[in-house]
Amino acid sequence: MATSLRNQFRVARTSAELTHFRQQAWRLYEPVPSETIEAFGQAWPLRPGLTFTPFANAVRCTAHCAFCSEELQRYDGHQLTAKRLIDDYPAYFARLREVLRPFRGWPLGLSLSGLEATAEPQWLRELLACLTQLEHEGMVFDEKVLYTNGSGFVASPDLGLALQDFGLSRLELSRCHDDEAVNQHIMRFNRNQPMRHNAVYAATVRWLHQHLAVKNSCILTQVGITTLPDVERYLAWAAGLGVRQVVFRELSRLEGSYLPNVFTEWIEQQRVPIEPLLAAAVPTLEAPRAGWQYAGSTFGYYYYNEHYRWQGIEVIFETSSYPALQAATATGVLQKLILHSDGTLSGDWDPDSRVLSRVAAPAPALP
User: Fold this and answer.
1) CA distance 102 to 106
2) Given CA atoms 305, 109, 81, 333 in this order, what sign does their dihedral have?
3) Secondary structure E strands in 14-68
4) Looking at residue 247, what DSSP letter applies?
5) Structural domain includes residue 222
6) DSSP letter (8 states) at residue 14
7) Which of 168, 274, 293, 343 lies at 20 to 30 Å from 85 by C-alpha?
8) Domain of life here (predicted)?
9) Is 70 in contact with 81 (CB distance < 8 Å)?
């Protein structure tokens, strides 16, 4: 078993072992021993290799994806960071420097996600400059990933150059279908967003490939990519744009852990489990589908991936469990760090859960 700071990679040697992987998935993840850091007046146990997310929320998102996780609220949840915009950039970046100070020298993964980081180019440029300065001061980001719908690159292509200079490890670009009308039905870009059109998307991807490692991310849905022939058609289309790595994600398994709303209803109605796709690609190691080659499996603390090669493209199928994520968070060991848009640093997507530090309340005015 190969182990990184963030997950564990294994290659099934027999078909029985591969079946076991698929049945147990993330449950086979073996937690690594936690380490302790002194921060904000107390000791915090943390998972080595945890990720840090400065929640991107300077402006409203440029799309309204039907599966948006930022519209989900847990039964024990309090508030949604997505509803609170970053309205004071100097204060925000001062806070960013403050909350990361105790973690200097600790390897962190940097996950640029939340809403749409490219939607406000000024904020993203200032964020990259701030993080770069922190690196000069001892911060260690051993992996840097941007999750994006790509919309901001159309009007501000220089963002790609800024990300290249920053040393971005990869850019995960969301696209849920090779047909722009079907993709729009799922991702629901604002009408003024050119990225909704395939021609604009294709030109953007080709340009980005000159500067960054681009990985396509496709959410599996009943109205979109559903079957393995659908997957192969999408891959052929992506390959024509120069894409060499694609991940197909099952909608995260909620298992009744979130308050019902139109988003949870859509997610459950549209779910496409990955198991039938895995069985169609490689029913057994001895008899894979033509063109498909199993390369291994990744186990995370709340997700499971299977890796393949298909006509020169690396293909990943992923499934994840939000209850497993919440269970890991509930152990008290920090699994991730999120700087919320109100300045709260927490170990949870809920800014009122697993709080490490809040913005100090202003002193009362003198009489």
Assistant:
1) 9
2) positive
3) 35-39, 42-54
4) E
5) yes
6) S
7) 168
8) Bacteria
9) yes
Per the confidence metrics, is the pTM higher than 0.90?
yes
Is residue 361 assigned to a domain? no
Our CA dihedral for 269, 273, 277, 282, rounded to 10 degrees, sits at -170
Determine the distance from the C-alpha atom of residue 84 to the mean position of all C-alpha atoms in its chain, rounded to a whole number. Answer: 20
Let me know how long the chain is: 367
Q: Is residue 352 assigned to a domain?
A: no
User: For each of the chain's 367 residues, which pLDDT tens digit applies?
Assistant: 666 778 999 999 999 999 999 999 999 999 989 999 999 999 999 999 899 999 999 999 999 888 877 766 665 665 565 578 998 999 999 999 999 999 999 999 999 998 899 999 999 999 999 999 999 999 999 999 999 999 999 999 999 999 999 999 999 999 999 999 999 999 999 999 999 999 999 999 999 999 999 999 999 999 999 999 999 999 999 999 999 999 999 998 877 776 777 878 888 899 999 999 999 999 999 999 999 999 999 999 999 999 999 999 999 999 999 889 889 988 999 999 999 999 999 998 888 889 999 997 554 445 5
